[in-house]
Model the fold of this input.
Amino acid sequence: MPPDARFDARSQKRARKLEAAHAIAKGKFLAPDAVTPLLEAVIAPTDTVIIEGDNQKQADFLAKCLLGVDPAKVHHLHMCQSSIILPEHLDLFERGIASRIDFAYAGPQGERLFRMLADKKLVIGDIHTYVELYTRYFADLLPDVCLLVAEKADKAGNVYTGFSTEETPALIEATAFKGGIVVVQVNEVVDALTRVDIPADWVDFIVQSPRPFYIEPLFTKDPGQMTELQVLMAMMALRAIYAKYLPRTVNHGVGFNTAAIELLFPTYGLELGLKGKACTHWALNPHPTMIPAVESGFVETIYPVGGEVGMEAYVNSKPDIFPIGFDGTMRSNRFFSQMCGHYAADMFIGSTLQIDIQGNSSTVTSGRLVGYGGAPNFGCDARGRRYASPAWLAAGKEAYAGAPMPRGRKLVVQIVETYHGRMQPTFVEKLDAWEFAQQGFFANPPVMIYGDDVSHIVTEEGVANLLLCRTPQEREQAIRGVAGYTPVGLARDRAMVDALRERGAVAWPEDLGIKESQASRDLLAAKSIKDLVDWSGGLYDPPSRFRNW
Amino acid sequence: MPPDARFDARSQKRARKLEAAHAIAKGKFLAPDAVTPLLEAVIAPTDTVIIEGDNQKQADFLAKCLLGVDPAKVHHLHMCQSSIILPEHLDLFERGIASRIDFAYAGPQGERLFRMLADKKLVIGDIHTYVELYTRYFADLLPDVCLLVAEKADKAGNVYTGFSTEETPALIEATAFKGGIVVVQVNEVVDALTRVDIPADWVDFIVQSPRPFYIEPLFTKDPGQMTELQVLMAMMALRAIYAKYLPRTVNHGVGFNTAAIELLFPTYGLELGLKGKACTHWALNPHPTMIPAVESGFVETIYPVGGEVGMEAYVNSKPDIFPIGFDGTMRSNRFFSQMCGHYAADMFIGSTLQIDIQGNSSTVTSGRLVGYGGAPNFGCDARGRRYASPAWLAAGKEAYAGAPMPRGRKLVVQIVETYHGRMQPTFVEKLDAWEFAQQGFFANPPVMIYGDDVSHIVTEEGVANLLLCRTPQEREQAIRGVAGYTPVGLARDRAMVDALRERGAVAWPEDLGIKESQASRDLLAAKSIKDLVDWSGGLYDPPSRFRNW
Done:
C-alpha cells in the first residue's frame, strides 16, 4: 500500500535526507571524518535530535561530531536526551546549533545548565524521569535523528549493545518506526556477532569511533569511604523497614547510604533473619557492593537498568542472578528495569539533597539543576499496581487504615544525613525548588519525590514512618523528629514527637534497640574495594581509579 | 568467562532440555505434529510457562499443542499469560497439566474462571495490569518456556511480528535472557523478510501453524449500534472535560461510549474548537472509529498497543500518524504504548461495570472474573510523571487547591450509563469485588480503578468532577448526583448536590448548555461501518462479520 501523500511528510523528509547523504556515504558504514558532513546532510534546522547517553554510557563521539556541524546549516535543534553529562552537550547551545532541550538528568553539568538557563542561552522543555521521556518519543517528541552508541556491529550492520544495552532499544524503536534517521557509533566492527541485539534493517549508518565510548562507573562505591554514621543509618533502615515489612523486590538508589545497607546484609541482615525472606529480587544495576550479598545467598535475581564497569566477568558468570543471553553475556535494559522498579518492586530507597517539612524532596538546589533521573519513577507509589505481596499489603494497611477501601502501597524511603556537604542542612522549611518556579523557569517547583509518595525518612537521628501519620501536622512533626540539630529539627514540638514515638511513627535508635556503639565499620562485609574483589573470587575488575592496593 | 556452577542452575536446565529436544527437532524448525512431543521434552513439571495472547492476538496453535501433552509427564505448570481467552487456556487446568495462573485479563472466560476458582481447580497467583505482569517476568516470575506467536519467519529463523507485534518483545526478552526456551508459531515461513523484528538467535524453535493465528477485532465498534444516549454522554464529556482541559495526549478505553466520542470530533468537537488544540496525540489501537478524526486533521500521532483487524492498509498508508517501519508496515508495541498511556498521556477515559460511592470501580462482578487488562495502568494518576502540559497543570490545580505543594495530575475519567445489561445498576453502595476478598480469593477486593485516581465520572445524567470535591462526603454526593435513578442516585442529599452543582463539581446537561434534543445520531461523523470504509477511501477492510451492506 503506497503511503497517502497527506500523511507522509516524515518519510518524504527522510527520503530527501538519505538522498543528500548518498553523496557522503555509499553504504551503511562511515569513516569517522565523514560523520560531521553526514550529520549536516541528515539534520535539518529545528529537527528533534536524540543523543544517547544516560548516567552511564555516552554516544560521546557522535556528540563531538554534532558539535562540528556548521551552525549556518544546522541550527535551532530540539535536543532530547536522558542526560546532560558531557561538556559537548551544552556547547551545542553556545554555538547556536541547538536551542531547546528536554531531559531527565544533568549530573555534573547541573551548575552550567542553570547558568545557561538563567542567561537565556537555552530553553528547557521540561525535566523528566527517564521512562517518561522515552514515552514522549513515541507520542509527541518524535525524533528526526537519533545518535546511538553500541559495542559492536557486524559487516551486515547488525548491532550488539550487550552488557550496557541500557536505553538503546527504546530510543531506536521510537526513531526507526517514525521515519527518523538512526546513526550508531560502535567500538568495533566484526565479521560476525555472537548475538544480535538490533537487526541491521533498523539502522541507517554505523561508524567505528576512534576510541571506545565513555562510560561512568556510577554505582561503584568504595567501602573504604563508608562512615560509622552510614553504618548506623543502614542498621536503622534494616531494623525498622527491611525486617518489618520484608520487601521482596527492591530498588536501591545510587549513593553511599544504600551501598552501606548492601554491605550489611551478610552481617546485620543475617542477624535480623533477612536471608531468603527479604530483598530476594532486585531492579538494580550490578552494584559491586552487592557482591557479598550475592555470594552469601541473599539474592535470587537482579534485573539491571545498565551495566557497571568492571563487573562484566562477575555478572556473566552468574546467569541465575543476572539476565544473560545464549552467548553468555548480559543485556541490561533501562526501560524494562525502570518499570520493574516501578511495578514489580515493593520498595525504593534512595538519597536526596533537600527535604521540606511535608517530605517533598529535590535535588534542584540554588544555582544547580541536577534533574531527576530515575528517582520519580522508582520513588512513587505505583498506583497501577495490583498484585499483592506481604510488604505491599502491610504498607497499605498502615497507609489506608480506616479508609473504606483497602489498598496496597509501595514503600518509598528517603535515607539522608541531617547535614550534607559543607554543613548544609538537608531539612528545610521550603525547598530551593520554589525559586525556579517563582522565576518562571518551571510551572511548578521541580520536586524529585513528593511527600505524599514517601513512606519513611531515615536519618542518623532515627526513622520517621509517614504511613502512620494521620494529619499534615503529624507528618510535619515526624519529619522534624528525625531532623536532628537542623533548624527544622530544633523547631519540633517535643510533646507531639513523643506521642509519635509512642505510636512508632518516629523511632530513635534506642526505640529500635540499636546502640550507636554497635554501629561499627566492622559490620561492613567488605571494607575496601580489594575486599569486594576477594569476595568475587577475583572476577570483579574495578576501574583503575578505585585500585589503591 | 565460564558460568559459576553455584549460580547456573537455569542454563544447565536449559541445556538438558535442549538435549532432550534434539531427538525431536534437528534444527530450529518443527513440523506441526512435532510440537507436542517437543513441549514434553522442554517443559518440566512445575515450570513457569508463558502462552502469548492478550486481548487481541493468540498463540492458539501452541496452546492446543500444550493441551496435548501427557499430564503424567508435564504437570503442575505455573501459567503466566496476559489473557485467558481461549477454552484451551482453562482446559489445561481441567486436564491436570497446569495448576497455578497469573494473568491480567480473562474476558470471555471470566465466568468459567470464577467457577474453576471456586471449585479449587486452579489457584490464581494474582490479577495484574499488563505491564505490571511483564515486569514480574523480569523479576520474580521467570519464564522457563515461552510460547509466542508471530506473522512470519525467514529460513534463518529471524522473525517478523509486524503490525500486531503487541507484547512479543517484552515476553521474548524476559525468556531469552534468563535461560528460558522460546518457541514461536508463525503463519508463514519465507525466504527473506522485508523487516526483522526479532533476531534469529533469540529464538529456539519455530513452527508454521496449520492456520493463521487467531486475532480478535476488539476495537471495532459499529457506529450503527450507537445510541442517542451515548451521543449525549459523548457531548457532555467533550464539553465538560475535553474542551475545558484540552488534553494533548489521550488514551480511550474499549467500548461504545468512547467510540461515540471519537465519531463526534469532526462534528461537535469541531464546533467546540478542539481541532489542533486537544487530542492531537494518542496512545491507542488503530480504532476504525478514529478514521473520521484522522481524515479531518484532528490527529497528529497514534502510538498503538496492538493492531486492529482490517486496518492494515489504512494504517500503513499513514506513516505520519502511525509507527511504520522502513518496510512500510506498522509495528505496534504493547509495553511502550501502555507506558505512553501511563506517562505521556494527559487523560484516560473508559467504561466499567460497577462504581461504588467512593468512585472505586470493578469489572470483577459476582460470578465473573474479568480482570483488569490495561485499565489500572492507564487509569491511575502517574505519580512519577514530571513534565507539565496545560491539561495536567489545570487538573492538578483543582486537585491540589490549597495544598502546600502544587502538583500536576492526570485526568482519569469513567464514562458509564447508570444502568447496564439487563437493568443492572452501574452504581452500587458496595462493589461485588468485596465478596472475592471475603471468600479469601484475594487479599484485598480486586478493584480495577480506585476512586482516589478518578477525576471525573460521566453518565447520561451529568458529569461529576471529583477534583473539586474536598471531603469524602462531597465525593460521595457528587457521585450520587450523576447516578440517576439507581438506588445510589435516589439516596442523594439534594441540598449537597445543588451546592456541588453551584461549584461545578456536578454538572447536569443543562449546566453544560446541552439539550437532550441536540443529542442526535446525526452528530456521528459515521453512522455505519460502511461510512467508515468510505471515510478511509476504501482502505479500511472490516472483518466480514461487520459487513452488512
